Amino acid sequence: MTSPRNTVLLLLALGSLAVLATLLVLGAANREAPQSRLTPVQASERLVRTDSPTLGPADAPVTVVEFFDPECESCRAIEPDLMRLLSKYQGQVRLVARYFPLHANSLLAAGTIEAAAQQGEEKRWRMREYLFDKQPEWGEQQTSQKDKFLGYAQDMGLDLGPVEATLGSTAVRDLVERDRQDGEALGVTGTPTFFVNGQPLTQLSVTALEEAIQEALNP
């Protein structure tokens, strides 16, 4: 027979689990559906800055904005499908890349991408892909992975002097911080987070992303 004291403890434990489950559900909801307090005009200005890197034609009817972290495993996982969709809807979709750093080496990784872009814009996307490919080597480390990033730059044939100067530069730090603040203002809490023609993707999946693109193309 269960004693009254044990019954009370059991009820308290179940109550705590219920609260935890509720918090997890709410957290997932916030992760899946960014909530912005900005006006439509303010949101538009925060989504795409004049200097935000883009892939695809400027006059494409669909703009996909991705807040990403080079150290994010989910960003790495979805990258091949994201590029496949850009190829499938070539000329119809433009990708805008925004940083949203969440890990110890996120800033250095962003600096590596920016350093590559300074030596040719097409190298931006090559370095992004290369860092995702190499992510198991440098990701989830609490110590600086600067030497690895310099090695990746050397692998790509980049001039290492400018790369090293860019990695920890104030310009990169300010750029990444601006992107992060824009993301937070738009309700971004995790990566990757996508917006399709200004509307947040409510479910993180390749299928949902493609459906949103198709809906934008055929309103």
From TrEMBL:
State the coiled-coil residue ranges: none
Q: Where is the signal peptide?
A: none
Alphabetically sorted, this entry's keywords are:
Disulfide bond, Oxidoreductase, Redox-active center, Signal
Pfam families per the UniProt record, alphabetical: Thioredoxin_4 (PF13462)
Per the database record, which ranges form the Thioredoxin domain? 27-218
Q: Which PROSITE patterns match?
A: THIOREDOXIN_2
Q: Which GO terms describe its molecular function?
A: oxidoreductase activity
* InterPro entries assigned: Thioredoxin-like_fold, Thioredoxin-like_sf, Thioredoxin_domain
* Gene3D superfamilies cross-referenced by the UniProt entry: Glutaredoxin
For this chain, the family text in UniProt reads: Belongs to the thioredoxin family. DsbA subfamily.
Record protein name field: Thioredoxin domain-containing protein
